[in-house]
Design a protein that fits this description.
Blueprint (H helix, E strand, L loop, with lengths): L5 H18 L7 H27 L8 H17 L7 H52 L6 H16 L1
């Protein structure tokens, strides 16, 4: 993966969704699972793209989304394999149905655990930044009697406090 972030996530997500759409009707044995997966992916598509963009804008580590990208890439390959199973191969059908369920479970866990943890972290960070705002305002107010160089130095100092 050359770039892990918005572009890589969008590509992996799009590939998985397109694979589901392509094979949903051909892989009759897995149709209900694939319809469920398609529904989930269509709902998440705009949200995931927005999260990836916001993570990029906020300078979040790209590793936060690596596991999701990896799961989507594996899911796309898995669905392609499911489409090649002969309808009378019940053992393969059972094995791949379990793998599809594991894919769905993995996606659920990602959003239930990791995204929830990221949400809590983001909220705490926002609260800390809000609490630091009075310090920034105090520093800016102190600049009213300073010249331009001192104002710039004071603003930079206040910005350092807010980013800590």
């Amino acid at each position: 993966m050359a770039e892990v972030g918005g572009a890589a996530l969008g590509a992996a997500f799009g590939e998985l969704l397109n694979t589901v759409l392509e094979w949903k009707n051909n892989a009759i044995m897995f149709k209900s699972t694939l319809v469920n997966l398609q529904s989930i992916l269509k709902e998440l598509d705009p949200i995931i793209k927005e999260i990836a963009q916001q993570n990029n804008d906020l300078g979040r580590p790209k590793e936060e989304l690596e596991s999701l990208i990896s799961e989507m890439e594996k899911g796309s390959k898995l669905i392609s394999k499911c489409s090649q199973i002969h309808k009378l191969n019940y053992f393969a059908k059972l094995r791949y149905q379990k793998k599809l369920k594991a894919l769905l479970d993995s996606l659920h866990m990602f959003f239930m655990v990791r995204m929830l943890a990221q949400l809590v972290r983001d909220q705490k960070e926002t609260l800390l930044n809000i609490r630091r705002m009075p310090l920034v305002f105090e520093r800016i107010e102190d600049t009213t009697s300073l010249d331009d160089t001192e104002i710039n130095d004071s603003i930079e100092s206040a910005m350092e406090i807010s980013s800590v």
